[in-house]
From TrEMBL:
One term of GO molecular function: metal ion binding
Name the UniProt record assigns to this protein: Probable alpha-L-glutamate ligase
Enzyme class: ligase
A biological process term (GO) from this entry: translation
Database matches in PROSITE patterns: ATP_GRASP
Cofactor(s) annotated in UniProt: Mg(2+); Mn(2+)
Family: Belongs to the RimK family. In the C-terminal section; belongs to the RimK family.
UniProt binding sites for Mn(2+) 2: E259, N261
Length: 306
């Protein structure tokens, strides 16, 4: 296969590992800075131009940064118009990046998550606090990533102050119940296709309720319960993601989904579990590409016979 990896830098760990895994399996790979792509939106022959050359790919693997979602998903859509297989679809990426929309979809599917409140007007702050059960509670910026813009408010006065400050900055926020029994730890389940291929427990440093590795947390391999495994697969499927990092908390009433990431990093999960996740992604894409080619061949045969 000719694989295009949509990434800002070839030196990034996840990008480099995907390149390594694809080449080890005999594929041709090109790292493409999606922000440098030019799209020719022609009605009969849509094209993607990169460094003055037309890209010819069988498969793309989007590694779209959160701050570049709009243009990045537009490039993915352009490839989709060219009938190029994408590891994750443009629609699924957009769903996952909109935290409010993704939680609404998970809620519709009956998937467990912390009680969450959302309101536009600062006048409704008390109502949102009451909705999630009062303090302590967690306030999250909708646009935040890697633990940035996530605040634990331990009292109602603190919660009112934080929410008011964010709203006065015209920032969109979610308010969620604080799951104390999680103890500052969460689980990252890495889903590829319809399987959880690796999972790790991330623990925040002392005094820190956020477990993100970027914020000094550490990770160890963990065995998921059947319920946790099924919850992770259902969450990824609900958003339409074939490759996803599903973050969840262990609570007294079962696993609760915090977030579903469409471009999950490979470094933490591979180092903590010893699983070659990059190779599993490439193997999954090989299978999907072969299935599409078989279906196309059968379709052409039916047309000829008809």
């Amino acid at each position: 296969m000719k694989i295009g990896i949509l990434s800002r830098k070839s030196s990034l760990y996840s990008t480099a590992r995907l390149v390594q895994a694809a080449r080890a399996r005999g594929h041709e790979v090109k790292v493409v800075d999606y922000l440098r792509c030019v799209m020719n939106i022609a009605s009969h022959r849509p094209r993607v131009i990169y460094q003055d050359l037309e890209l010819d790919c069988d498969v793309i693997i989007p590694r779209i940064g959160a701050s570049n979602t709009f243009y990045g998903t537009a490039v993915v859509r352009q490839f989709e118009m060219m009938n190029v297989l994408s590891a994750n679809s443009s629609v699924a990426i957009s769903r996952s990046r909109d935290k409010l929309r993704s939680l609404q979809i998970l809620s519709r599917e009956g998937i467990g998550m912390p009680v969450t409140g959302f309101a536009h007007s600062p006048k409704d702050i008390q109502g949102v606090i009451d909705m999630v059960g009062g303090a302590p509670l967690v306030v999250k910026l909708l646009e935040g990533t890697q633990g940035v813009g996530v605040v634990l408010a331990e009292t109602e006065k603190a919660a009112e102050s934080v929410i008011s400050a964010f709203r006065n900055l015209d920032a969109n926020i979610l308010v969620q119940e604080f799951i104390k029994e999680a103890g500052g730890a969460d689980i990252r389940a890495f889903v590829v296709g319809d399987r959880v291929v690796a999972s790790m427990l991330r623990q925040g440093p002392p005094g820190e309720f956020r477990s993100n590795l970027h914020r000094g947390g550490n990770a160890v391999r963990i065995k998921l319960t059947p319920e946790e495994r099924e919850c992770a697969k259902r969450a990824a499927k609900a958003l339409g993601l074939r490759v996803a990092g599903v973050d969840m908390l262990r609570s007294n009433h079962g696993p609760l989904i915090m977030e579903v990431n469409s471009s999950p990093g490979l470094e933490g999960i591979e180092e903590s579990t010893g699983v070659d996740v990059a190779a599993k992604i490439i193997a999954h894409l090989e299978k999907r590409h072969a299935e599409l080619e078989k279906r196309d061949a059968e379709g052409k045969k039916r047309k000829v016979e008809g």
